[in-house]
């Protein structure tokens, strides 16, 4: 008994330390990049469109880390238990908004970059001029949609408050820091229409945009090799390097998002999942908010040189 108790304690301590590191480093990275974007805005009085999208992605990451990483760290290390129904509703709402905005802004960034690097003789030639003008509206619409759509679920929880406190726990889910009624099971059709369908649509768009960027980069590299036959190792253009960085960001998101969906589906299939499964799902959901600011930092160090160029003055 002591062996298993000690082993469980060491396991919980290790998971808590990982959550703590993810949370601290993730908050530091996201706030550092957000400060950088704000500094650029106040010094240059404008941001590139990709920086504007990246700023909102960072805000979504911060919401995810604060609503997922902080509670998981506190409860895993057994510092406090979030037993309040209101706290659970608020945390889950902020987490859903951050998750929805994360996939929305990643999709917007991928699609925008795909349009901007498309050849002038492609079907996107008209959008290359119009797209930057609609980015601010698209981001605002995405925030409004995420906040109002996800607001349905805490309101639904208040409507079925008797079921929320019911002793029948067949439709409950333990997220590690609170036990709440599984609203996805109660309102499956609503959840599918408002949450699952948009996420699947955004995932398909990100996948399509990534494929288009890969094809465009391949064609560009072929052209560069043809033009610079005499050159031993022609350097890729700044535009290509910026696109590769955004492609890396989108690919990283799709990998972790797919893994997170698989684990969430697995959790939904079990009424009483193991702690290992719950903790692993939480760790995976924290990976992209933790890594993405550093991917954007590497992109920004490269794209900073593009301010001098005319070809990407609008990107």
TrEMBL record:
It is a multi-pass membrane protein. It is found in: Cell membrane. Pfam families: V1R (PF03402). One of its GO terms (molecular function) is pheromone receptor activity. PROSITE patterns: G_PROTEIN_RECEP_F1_2. The keyword Transmembrane applies. GO terms for cellular component: plasma membrane. Residues 29-296 form the G-protein coupled receptors family 1 profile domain. The chain crosses the membrane at residues 12-40, 52-70, 101-122, 134-159, 190-218, 246-270, 276-296. SUPFAM superfamilies: Family A G protein-coupled receptor-like. The keyword Membrane applies. GO terms for biological process: response to pheromone; sensory perception of chemical stimulus. Keywords: Cell membrane, G-protein coupled receptor, Glycoprotein, Membrane, Pheromone response, Receptor, Transducer, Transmembrane, Transmembrane helix. Belongs to the G-protein coupled receptor 1 family. Putative pheromone receptor. This is Vomeronasal type-1 receptor. It comes from Bos indicus x Bos taurus. The lineage of its organism: Eukaryota, Metazoa, Chordata, Craniata, Vertebrata.
